[in-house]
Amino acid sequence: KNEVEQSPQNLTAQEGEFITINCSYSVGISALHWLQQHPGGGIVSLFMLSSGKKKHGRLIATINIQEKHSSLHITASHPRDSAVYICAVYGGATNKLIFGTGTLLAVQP
Amino acid sequence: DGGITQSPKYLFRKEGQNVTLSCEQNLNHDAMYWYRQDPGQGLRLIYYSQIVNDFQKGDIAEGYSVSREKKESFPLTVTSAQKNPTAFYLCASSIGAAGRADTQYFGPGTRLTVL
Fold first, then answer.
1. Mind spelling out the 3-state secondary structure of B17-80?
2. What is the pLDDT of residues B12-32, one digit of tens each?
3. Hey, of B32, B106, B110, B113, which one would you mutate to test binding to chain A, going by the most A CBs within 10 A of its CB?
């Protein structure tokens, strides 16, 4: 079992829909990263959080430390949001980043 | 513009050859990292460096080597000892020491194909 699990693995949405991507982890962590990877391959950091909730534009990230769970929400989704969204945690004995396998999101016009 | 550059974007290599991937950053970050990405798997750490002239093995260091002679540069050599080198390689950096929960900034990646 992976230490960081994401669901769903694939997600197709219609433009304008509200989207939720989930991340569960099994190790103690100091922080959690949400990352976005576009088809070209480059990765951009969206959020880093260790408690509560953060918002940036149409993106919202929440984390529940007790339940070891985080969610990434996209409001009013747009085709340009199509990408792979990756959850990663700073955890384990060495506090290095441990990555989930990603959620492939396709937003159709 | 500050950022991380990787070159080349695509690289082809014959079996048995060593190849070096470049990573440069002008963010004045102390820590730098090399990750490997394979289809259906999360990124895996190959090597990381917290300071010039120092580097540590990550989870999958076998068949790879690195150097950190300058703060800005952290090249990765894929040696012929790496049994399955075809993958997408990503370099990253962060402001503080590795092991601190700092935001990591990623380069655009190099896709290596062994022919």
1. CCEEEEEEECCCCCEEEEEEECCCCCCEEEEEEEECCEEEECCCCCCEEECCCECCECCEEECC
2. 999 889 999 999 999 999 999
3. B106
